[in-house]
């Protein structure tokens, strides 16, 4: 099963997203947005940025 983004309203009334793997485990979370639309755009930005992204060692 493919992963999915979930957009939700947090306890403070802000909108966030989380990326869940196919097994349901949360593998990434997004910052707080003032609108649901902003959170959806955040998921789209992550999808664009991740396409072809490389893995680097941050300690190097």
TrEMBL record:
InterPro entries: DUF1508, UPF0339_domain, YegP-like_sf. It comes from the Bacteria. SUPFAM superfamilies: YegP-like. Residues 10-57 form the DUF1508 domain. PANTHER family: PTHR40606, UPF0339 PROTEIN YEGP. This is DUF1508 domain-containing protein. It comes from Galactobacter valiniphilus. The lineage of its organism: Bacteria, Bacillati, Actinomycetota, Actinomycetes, Micrococcales.
